[in-house]
Amino acid sequence: MSPTSPTILSELAPPPAAPAPGTDGYITADGRKIGGVLMDLRHITLRFGGVTAIKDISFDIREGEIRAIIGPNGAGKSSMMNVMSGFYVPQEGEVWFRGAKRPPMRPYQVARQGLARTFQNIALFDGMSVLDNIMTGRLTMMKSSLLEQALWWGRAEAEETRHREQVEKIIDFLEIQNIRKTPVGRLPYGLKKRVELARALAAEPKLLMLDEPMAGMNVEEKEDMSRFILDVNDEFGTTIALIEHDMGVVMDLSDRVVVMDYGRKIGDGTPDEVRNNQEVIDAYLGVAHD
Ligand SMILES: Nc1ncnc2c1ncn2[C@@H]1O[C@H](COP(=O)(O)OP(=O)(O)OP(=O)(O)O)[C@@H](O)[C@H]1O
Asked: Cβ(64) to ligand 1 under 6 A?
């Protein structure tokens, strides 16, 4: 591995113990409970050869929070999400999750710790039904052996029933009952994004990461997706980190916002604090948003 390239799919390592953090939380203006620190990113630096995508950035995400990462194109937002999801291991810095420092581990191991994500470009199986796509979200939770699954035997049968029940709940919650048998390739864009959200939720994550969940959507689809994000947070208590370019959506949904520019962090705070931060206005917002 080159010292100037991030480690991808790095060495297997046992997952650390995951005690819940004990720091104090707070109650939001709309009555939601925000808990202690769930993920803590400390002095993260990520380089691709000569390009420094992330320069010494630190921030945390609290339990129950909706946390946005914003910034202009190329600011390093997706790279940061890839560090959070374990896809890239940064050259410098530490990722702490549920009170423990995370050693280098494969993304599926990170997923087993309670992280799930959606992607900027939809990553679903077009030829498979909505239901089957969502079921793939539970793969990291399946415990029966391949033989048991092939023979539909013992544990496999009980497991499949339990997974199906959970998936059906999510289908109801996201109001996609009527398309559950439809191949994903036939769906309009907004619904595909909703199916991607459903698949991520199927993994029952503690931290759900959404990379541009509204990209390419019309106004109505954005309203629907905003409502679902709020409902997921409220109903399941899922902590949500999202990258989004639509400032109206970001300011409406988020409890706190991190602002990146050229790999640096130039702002971090509540939507009000961020939109009144002069460096953020100069670099990104241009004018303060109402
Ligand atoms: N795999 C890679 N190899 C080399 N350079 C990369 C790689 N991924 C990202 N970069 C570079 O790192 C910088 C940050 O890119 P990144 O995609 O994280 O930004 P972003 O804020 O998510 O941008 P956008 O809003 O356009 O998606 C850019 O200069 C980009 O060209």
From this structure: no
